[in-house]
Structure formats: C-alpha cells, structure tokens
Amino acid sequence: MSTPQPPMPQQAVAAPNWQAAPGSSYTSPIPVTRTHLGHALTSEWTKIKSVRSTMWTLGIFLLLVIGIGFLVAAQTTNSDFTDVPYTIPAFFGLMLGQICLITLGVLVVSSEYGTGMIRTTFTASPQRHRVLAAKLIIFFAVAFVVSAFAIGFVGLITSGMHGGSSNVSWGGTVIMGALYVSLLGVLALAVGSMLRHSAGAITTMLGVVLVPAIMPAFLMMSESMQTIGEKMQEYNAPNALARIFQLDSENGHGGAQLGLLAGVTAAAIVGAFVLLERRDV
Question: Distance (Å, rounded) from C-alpha 205 to C-alpha 99?
C-alpha cells in the first residue's frame, strides 16, 4: 500500500487590480521649510499672549504704576516740580509694580516645566538654546513696552496737572526706568530657567530685590561691615530707581546701577543657557 503524497502548495496569484506603491517621485503636499529663530519667536509670542497670567500680571502692573502715580501726582503742587521730572510719581508705583514683572518673568519659563509642556516644546524645537533665546527676547520686548508706556503715561498726566512748572527733561527716565524693571524681569526668567520651579525662583528674586534694601541698616551698625552696607545701599533696587528718576541726582542718574544689573542679568542668562544644554528635561 502506497503512502499518500501531501498536497502541493498553490502559487499566489496577483490580484488583477494590484497597483505598485508610489516610488521616489512622490512629493508631500505639506511644505517643508527649515526652522529658524523667527518661528520660535512666533511660538513664544503666541504663548505669552494666550495665557491668563500675562494679562493678570501686566494688568496689575499698569494699575499699580498708573494708579499710584496718579494719586501721588494729585497730591503735589507746581512748586514740587521746579527741578525734577514729571515722571517722579511713577517711581512710587514701580516700587510695587516691579514685583509683577519679576513674577511674570519666572512664569514664562517655569510654568512649562510645572505642567510638563516643556517636553512638547523641545520636541517641536530640539534646539533648546533657540527656545530660551526666543523667550528672553519676547519677554523683554513686552516688559519694556508696557513699562515705558506706564511711566510715560504717568509723566503725561503729571505734566497736564502741573504744566509749565518743570523744565527738566523726563524722556530719559522713561527709557532707563523701563529698562531697569525689564532687566529685573529678564533676570527672573533666567533664574526660573535654572531652578525650574516657580515658587523657588520667585522667592529667590524677592530676596535679590528686598535683602539688599533691608540689610544695610544692620550692616552699617558694625564698622567692619559698614563699607559693604554702604555699597549694598547704593546699588539696591529702590535706590537705583530713585537715582534714575532723579530723586537723588547728586549721586548720579542711575547709570552705574543699571550697568551692574545688566552685568548680573547677562551672567544669569549665560548660566541658564549652559544648564539648559547639560540637563535632561
């Protein structure tokens, strides 16, 4: 009896309507372009104008600077502006308003770390330095424009109330005052990038602003620490703004204080870029 043979495998037959896959000649309908800093700037501008924290912090900043400035201007007389600029009332509002810019500077970067959205940002733009540069540029532009507007508006209000009583130019105080508080905000952004924690970065920046204003009173009690206390008093934020607004014009117009802040901010920015490239997200 013979052993039955297994059935032979059948050959696969191609379907009559079979079509070959598209070759290398296929072109995607989606345009592909090389990314650049402009794309990052557009992205960061969309972010900063879309979140509620921006509107709240800038709104409170304008309310403080313009509102307090108006109240101060309303309590002054023409004789108060014989040798000082009309923007002096804005100084009192900036003493509180600068905290708003510091807070916003921290939140611009730390909020993305808090929600985890920074991973999406770096996935869309793997060049991390480009993202941080765009954040710095957009924030500085927004802070400077808003600050200059607030200070200038207070100057216009005061000038309208006491027109003709002062011959002191006040355009420089608008530029330097806005530059000083904007640099404080940029410094806060760099600190926020390094610490990656909103509460920690805001607390650190409050210490940078408040400690040099409080410590000199205690340091100058000791003769050995008196020099340090005097320098700290000379370069702290309240005295720097006072010199910029010519409340203490005998000791300069705040150029040295503004230069020191610019140097510290530049060093913090360098540190933020270095740590951004070396650490994981």
Answer: 9
- Between CA 237 and CA 261 the distance in angstroms is 9
Do the Cβ atoms of 264 and 186 come closer than 8 Å?
no
- 154-188 pLDDT per residue, tens: 999 988 887 766 677 888 899 999 999 999 999 99
Q: Residue 182 and residue 270: Cα distance in Å, rounded?
A: 18
Radius of gyration of the chain (CA): 29
Closest CA to 275 of 208, 185, 191: 191
**pLDDT, tens digit, 9 for 90 and up, residues 50-104:** 888 899 999 999 999 999 999 999 998 888 887 888 899 999 999 999 999 999 9
- pTM greater than 0.70: yes
Say whether 167 sits in a helix, a strand or coil. coil
How many residues are given for the chain?
A: 281
* H-assigned helices in the chain: 37-50, 52-74, 88-115, 117-124, 128-161, 171-195, 198-214, 216-219, 226-235, 237-244, 255-278
Asked if residue 61 lies in contact with residue 97, where contact means CB atoms within 8 angstroms, the answer is: yes
Give φ, ψ of 116 to 5 degrees.
85, 0
CA geometry: angle 70, 74, 77, nearest 5 deg: 135
Q: Nearest 5 degrees, angle CA 157-CA 241-CA 140?
A: 85
| Burial (CB count <10 Å: 0-12, 13-18, 19+), residue 179 | buried
User: Is the four-CA dihedral 216, 220, 224, 229 of positive or negative sign?
Assistant: positive
